[in-house]
């Protein structure tokens, strides 16, 4: 079996307040809350999934709620920026005006890696970048949620490039290219004087929805992960059969990994690359409409079957949102 990752599946970050998080990502950014569930490894906290109208793989930005966590300190061994795709260059102008209206901390529109982009921060300092699909080819985007007040022609259609910041880029590059099948696409100048170019890698059909941007920095300490940081990035695998083949390949490489994990909405494998960043491989299905009708996604607390018998206790420990 030829193993080939399809692109970015999801990115999971950390918030300190679920209610505020839902408000920003649904009302300000116009994304759909496609699943309101709990962290399966710690059911005392929410796990919130945002995406396109269906929460398709490649559109999902997720958050764990850890109210008592400290604030993150940016640094190496980190996922230092998450991109969100918008349909074209005109959308960036729309969002620039919207961010001013909603008092969202943002920068100017600039080119990164051959695309126009708009960097901004959520209320907790989460580092995000809107990236234009104006000239993008490769992995297709999704369809914006039609019940958002953001016009569809400007709406967020999925995840774009994920930036990794590391002390030793060669170590991460070997895992990406020799183990995971990524290919080097190009590079562009760092925004920090004296630092190496940021290197672009892509997989599968290529394009924004598949890219990893690898930044090497020797002027930073290691990141202190907390509120405002990203927990892990997940890559798309077609199905369970292919995931199990990946488990064998990664185990044979000598990297310690989780083995097969059933998340109900998808199946997973977790491992850390040599600079300490947590990677996940996740299947495209079964999907978020497995236990809820498509038109009611995210409206109630959804629990996978193995947690359903504990619903009363779990709900008692959560603050309603």
Going by helix content, strand content and strand pairing, the class is alpha+beta
Radius of gyration: 19 Å
So, CATH architecture?
Answer: Roll
CATH topology: 2,3-Dihydroxybiphenyl 1,2-Dioxygenase, domain 1
Question: How would you describe this structure to a colleague?
Answer:
Keywords: Dioxygenase, Oxidoreductase. GO terms for molecular function: dioxygenase activity. It holds the Pfam family Glyoxalase. This is Ring-cleaving dioxygenase. The protein has 321 residues and is an alpha+beta fold. The protein has one domain: 2,3-Dihydroxybiphenyl 1,2-Dioxygenase, domain 1. It is 17% helix and 35% strand. The chain has 5 helices and 16 strands. The strands form 2 sheets. The protein has an 8-stranded mixed beta sheet with strand order 2-3-4-1-13-16-15-14. It has an 8-stranded mixed beta sheet with strand order 6-7-8-5-9-12-11-10, covered by helices on one side. The protein is globular and about 55 Å long.
């Amino acid at each position: 079996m030829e193993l080939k990752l399809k692109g970015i599946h999801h990115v999971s970050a950390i918030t300190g307040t679920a209610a505020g998080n839902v408000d920003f990502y649904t009302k300000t950014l116009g994304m759909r809350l496609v699943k309101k569930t709990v962290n399966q490894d710690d059911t005392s906290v929410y796990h919130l999934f945002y995406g396109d109208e269906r929460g398709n793989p490649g559109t999902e930005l997720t958050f764990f709620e850890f109210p008592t966590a400290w604030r993150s300190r940016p640094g190496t061994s980190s996922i230092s920026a998450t991109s969100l795709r918008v349909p074209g260059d005109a959308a960036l102008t729309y969002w620039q005006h919207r961010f001013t209206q909603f008092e969202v901390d943002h920068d100017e529109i600039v080119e990164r890696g051959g695309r126009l982009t708009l960097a901004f921060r959520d209320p907790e300092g989460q580092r995000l970048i809107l990236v234009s699909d104006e000239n993008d080819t490769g992995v297709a985007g999704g369809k914006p949620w039609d019940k958002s007040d953001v016009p569809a022609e400007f709406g967020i259609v999925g995840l774009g490039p994920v930036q990794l910041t590391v002390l030793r880029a060669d170590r991460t590059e070997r895992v990406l290219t020799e183990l995971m099948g990524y290919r080097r696409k190009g590079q562009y100048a760092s925004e920090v004087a004296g630092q190496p170019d940021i290197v672009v890698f892509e997989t599968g059909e290529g394009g924004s929805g598949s890219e990893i941007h690898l930044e090497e920095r020797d002027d930073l300490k290691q990141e202190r992960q907390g509120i405002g940081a990203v927990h892990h990035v997940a890559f798309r695998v077609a199905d369970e059969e292919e995931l199990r083949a990946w488990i064998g390949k990664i185990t044979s490489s000598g990297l310690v990994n989780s083995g097969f994990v059933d998340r109900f909405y998808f199946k997973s494998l977790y491992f850390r690359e040599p600079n300490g960043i947590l990677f996940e491989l996740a299947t495209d299905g079964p999907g978020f409409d497995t236990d809820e009708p498509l038109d009611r996604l995210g409206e109630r607390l959804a629990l996978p079957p193995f947690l359903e018998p504990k619903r009363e206790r779990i709900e008692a420990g959560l603050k309603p949102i």
